[in-house]
Amino acid sequence: MRMVRMLLVALVGVALLGAACGSSGESTATTKAKITTNWEAFFNPDTPTAKRLSLLENSDTAKIKAIALAQESNPQAKATKAKVKSITVNGDNASVTYDFVSTQNGSPILPNAQGKALKIKGTWKVSQQTFCALIALGGGSC
After folding, report:
1. What b/e readout covers 62-92, taking b as 16+ CB neighbours within 10 angstroms?
2. Domains and CATH numbers, the chain
3. What is the DSSP secondary structure assignment for residue 71, as one 8-state letter?
4. How far apart are CA 43 and CA 118, in angstroms?
5. What does the pLDDT read at residue 138?
6. Nearest to 86 by CA among 121, 57, 115
7. Mean pLDDT of the residues in the chain
8. pLDDT tens sequence across 38-63
């Protein structure tokens, strides 16, 4: 009986240790899938505003939020979406290579663009730096 109890305690300890380690460490494939989903949702004009804002770093600041909301009436923003090509993950940061493509025919408008994604409070978001660099391409600023 004592041996069974010791074995049970050992198994529970191993299970708890595994759960603790596994909760913060997801597979690279899962991480890349989450980044891809969020990145493409943010740059999709059909994604609801609240969802898009939740996927942008610092969208809770007045200035970034205002710029992001202004993009909803921008004809260029409405006519493009992102297609992720590759991702390199380094901890809670990721480099994203993507194409901006036409929403009408899928042809590349800005191929091989580079951006950053950040994991913030468990959610992968488009970095403010990436967002502002794209705004600058259109003649604006953050």
Report:
1. eebeebbeebeeeeebeebbbebeebebeee
2. 28-137 (3.10.450)
3. G
4. 15
5. 86
6. 115
7. 85
8. 999 999 999 999 999 999 999 999 99
Half-sphere exposure of 125 (CA within 13 A, CB side): 19
DSSP 8-class letter at 142: -
Calpha distance 81→110 (Å, rounded): 10
The DSSP annotation for 72-103 comes to GG-HHHHTEEEEEEEEEEETTEEEEEEEEEET
Q: What are the tokens at 135? A: 């705004």
pTM, entire model: 0.80
Q: What φ, ψ does residue 27 adopt, rounded to 5°? A: -65, 155
Q: Which amino acid is at 107?
A: S
